[in-house]
Write a structure and sequence with these properties.
binds glutamic acid, four-stranded mixed beta sheet, alpha/beta, 421 residues, 14 helices
Length: 421
């Protein structure tokens, strides 16, 4: 049978599995299987040649029982409604596991930012806000950056929304530049949160991180900082990294500054001299202590899961591992840490940003880092504890299922006490 690769079907399957294990109420389960609100817009944008181009945009608010919708906006040529729906479900579980006052949401536009100039990007960003103004707001649904969207894009979006509402609305979007009250520490928070999780996982599995071999797929925001932090925090050795064009590998370890320079100069990590070139597929199968998928969904499937040679799989991307791959990884004893725990640092610091915007009082970098560490380490420990609790009842469950059980349980409890079922 062909493997299911539709991200929304995958998200539903994960929920169904968790619901079965935890004995979730049927009404709650039905409510949680679909997004609460889906909006699709045809967005007109003025292009540099004076013509108007229509872009398809999405905003899905999956659940708001525990707080406003929350989640990034992706600008991606292969964006689809089902991907956005899946990502909005994962945001719901992410915010719930972190126990922050948000539900889950996600947005996206089908577009290729590599072919657009800054003016076109600004026009699109502002037009997105006009199209979705009624379903966004600091107490409704709060966007943030994601794949191919940046703090600058958040600034344009905040500005457009504020103009429409006739007042500054800093708390309507997070991941903003510091000049307009973004939070200290937000930019590298996704990768940093992942490193805190890695620290705990390595401790638990008694893996020494000094000189540990790390392989990273993806050189976007998460992958870039993961490289830098893994070397700085642990003295780990990043032996391979890739971008969408392919990767480079060196047993001796790669140099971060040299790699950044190569990427800036040639547009690809493959411009790095003195390393072997590898494809994205080969990279995932390299011998490593830690493998970090930090690109997009469906990278580890039933086709290559059996060939993963890492002790720890740190899912820094959203949805990189399919359910069929999950089963194989568990059988092979890979410690696979789920995306909505590993990459929750981004939204946790987004939450700090929203809190600071609401209070108009700002924290220093160290305070942000300390608070992030406390929250994400607690999430990790809660997950491990839930695994142990189920083991005590004779049920062996994966870290992902343990995290699901906590997250779904909290959303279901909030819906119950609000009287939704
Ligand atoms: N886009 C990031 C994520 O997938 C951050 C979301 C946010 O900060 O709202 O978690």
């Amino acid at each position: 049978m062909a493997e299911e690769l539709n991200p929304f079907k995958i998200a539903q399957r994960q929920l169904d599995d968790a619901a079965g294990i935890m004995g979730l109420d049927k009404q709650a389960h039905a409510l949680l299987r679909e997004p609460m609100r889906t909006v699709v817009a045809n967005i007109p944008v003025k292009m540099r040649d004076g013509t108007t181009k229509a872009f398809t945009g999405f905003r899905v608010m999956y659940n708001n029982a525990r707080g406003p919708g929350k989640g990034g906006i992706r600008f991606h040529p292969q964006e689809s409604l089902d991907t956005v729906k899946a990502l909005s479900a994962w945001m719901t579980w992410k915010c719930s596991l972190a126990n922050i006052q948000f539900g889950g949401a996600k947005g996206g536009v089908i577009c290729d930012t590599k072919t657009m100039n800054p003016q076109e990007l600004e026009n699109l960003s502002r037009a997105y806000m006009r199209a979705f103004r009624n379903v966004l707001g600091p107490n409704i649904d709060v966007p943030a950056p994601d794949v191919y969207t940046t703090p600058q894009i958040m600034a344009w979006m905040m500005d457009e929304y504020s103009k429409m509402s006739g007042q500054d609305e800093f708390g309507m979007i997070t991941g903003k530049p510091l000049e307009i009250w973004g939070s200290e520490g937000r930019f590298d928070s996704t990768a940093l949160g992942g490193m805190y999780v890695l620290r705990e996982a390595a401790k638990l599995k008694k893996i020494k991180m000094k000189n540990a071999k790390v392989v990273i797929q993806g050189f976007g925001n998460a992958g870039t900082f993961a490289f830098d932090l893994a070397t700085k925090m642990f003295g780990a050795k990043v032996v391979a990294i890739s971008d969408s064009t392919g990767g480079v590998y060196s047993d001796k370890g790669l140099d971060y500054a040299k790699l950044k320079k190569a990427k800036d100069e040639t547009g690809s990590v493959q411009g790095y001299k003195g390393a072997q070139s590898v494809t994205n597929e080969e990279l995932l199968e390299l011998d490593a202590d830690v493998l970090i998928p930090a690109a997009i969904e469906n990278q580890i499937t039933q086709k290559n899961a059996g060939k993963i040679n890492a002790k720890i799989l740190l899912e820094l991307a959203n949805g990189p591992v399919t359910p069929s791959a999950d089963e194989i990884l568990i059988q092979n004893g890979v410690f696979d840490l789920p995306d909505f725990l590993v990459n929750s640092g981004g939204v946790i610091v987004s939450y700090f940003e929203w809190v600071q915007n609401r209070g108009g009082y700002y924290w220093g970098e160290n305070e942000v880092y300390k608070k992030l560490d406390t929250i994400i380490t607690k999430s990790f420990n809660d997950m491990i504890q839930t695994q142990k609790d189920y083991a005590g009842k004779g049920k062996k469950i994966s870290p992902r299922m343990a995290a699901y059980i906590i997250a779904v349980g909290r959303v279901a409890a909030a819906m119950k006490v609000r009287g939704w079922y």
